[in-house]
Amino acid sequence: MNDTAIPPKKGGTSRKDRLAEQLRANLMKRKTQARSRRTGEPDKRPEGLPTAEKMHKD
User: For the whole prediction, is pTM greater than 0.70?
Assistant: First the structure.
């Protein structure tokens, strides 16, 4: 193999540029989703499983 770089195709953007743009768009989308979830009221559910109060013998 030779050590010369392969020039990008004419008229288009390079693969690296396209991937970078898609990554930025995905990040913006995920940030928007996270912000929309934060705008609601805090979750009123208890964290984890409830503890057993007493053992009931049948």
Answer: no
Residue 25 to residues 5, 22, 31, 46: CA-CA distances in angstroms? 28, 5, 10, 35
Q: Cβ distance 20 to 28 under 8 Å?
A: no
3-class secondary structure per residue, 2-58? CCCCCCCCCCCCCHHHHHHHHHHHHHHHHHHHHHHHHCCCCCCCCCCCCCCCCCCCC
Model pLDDT, residue 46: 66
Place of tokens 């009123």: 44
Closest listed residue to residue 30, CA positions, set 22, 41, 18: 22
SS3 1: coil
Length of the chain equals 58
The span from the CA of 28 to the CA of 26, in Å, is: 5
